[in-house]
Amino acid sequence: MIESIMHRLIMPALRLTAALVIPMLALAAMAPADARQKGPATPDVSVGAQYDTTHVYVAPADFDSFVSSFTSTFGGKPSPRIVANVLPVSSSTELQYVWTPAGTLSTFAFQTPIPFPFGQERTGYLVTDLNKAVAAARACGAEVIVEPFKDPIGLDALIQWPGGVKMQLYWHNSAPSYSTLDSVPDNRIYVSRDRADEFVRDFVKFSHGKVISDEKSADAGEIGRPGDTYRRIHIESGFGKMLVLVTDGHLPYPFGHELTGYDVKDLSDTLAKAQATGAKVLSPAFATGSRSSAIVEFPGGYIAEIHSFKSVAAQ
């Protein structure tokens, strides 16, 4: 009798407890996975697209002809040239910034062998605080392949994203002040299908950027394969523009060698200026939709994409 009474009293309470506790346990089990996916909030360390410098390595003998050809093509001017050790190990290079309305370069002509892994990074991003930027990059999935080090005017580090995308983060002792660009260039990133989503997710989180478009069947004539398609992802952030080109790696020369795509008002006119100052057109203009593009090699070997868009009125 006592057991029957206890059963009638206790079982409803147990059922109520189970009804409350089991969902709570399920939520608790799900929370860590969701937290890991979202990760901790990181600061926005970007400064501006005009401080995104493509890194160009040329032989000392080609330095003058390269800078002259590039500025004749896009306008702008170079900084005074200096010779310094800008790395954490013994080395010597000529260094010159090149400012143009279409994008900025950091140009190096090493007088000594280039220590590994320098020369593999594609671009340098100015950040508001290098230590915070490095911590944020790590938290967002990047690998720090060269720990922070001092150079003559500030601090630097090299990072690598999923897919092997290497870039420099830098900070100056005295904050630079560059004019905004007339047109922001594309940082052209080629990645495999295996790493594309991971790279985009991690970089967008780090840069506090957004995916502007994700075209699954873009015209592969843009990368030398007319009649085929590929995936093209357009990202914008405080660091500037990025074009992620997702391919199977079957790329005809010179595609994949270009680091940056420059947006100009008149492609034909710009190509004529480039050729007049020693540049070679490696892949002639290809038009798809409102966009026309070509691949050019400047004196010294720097390969770039150049493109223009038709205005709505002109179509």
Write a concise keyword list for the protein shown above:
315 residues, alpha+beta, 2,3-Dihydroxybiphenyl 1,2-Dioxygenase, domain 1, disordered N terminus, eight-stranded mixed beta sheet, single chain, nine-stranded mixed beta sheet
Structure in words:
It contains five helices and 17 strands. It has helices at 2-38, 63-74, 130-139, 196-207, 267-276; strands spanning 52-57, 77-78, 82-84, 93-100, 103-110, 123-126, 143-151, 154-161, 165-172, 186-192, 210-219, 229-237, 240-247, 260-263, 280-288, 291-297, 303-309. The protein folds into two domains: 49-172, 2,3-Dihydroxybiphenyl 1,2-Dioxygenase, domain 1, CATH 3.10.180; 186-309, 2,3-Dihydroxybiphenyl 1,2-Dioxygenase, domain 1 (Roll), CATH 3.10.180. A hairpin with a 3-residue loop joins strand 8 (154-161) and strand 9. It is of the alpha+beta class and 315 residues long. Helix 2 (63-74) packs antiparallel against helix 5. It is globular and about 50 Å long. Strands 1, 2, 3, 4, 5, 6, 7, 8 and 9 form a nine-stranded mixed sheet that branches. Strands 11-12-13-10-14-17-16-15 form an eight-stranded mixed sheet, with helices on one face. Mean pLDDT is 90; it is low at 1-14 and 16-37.
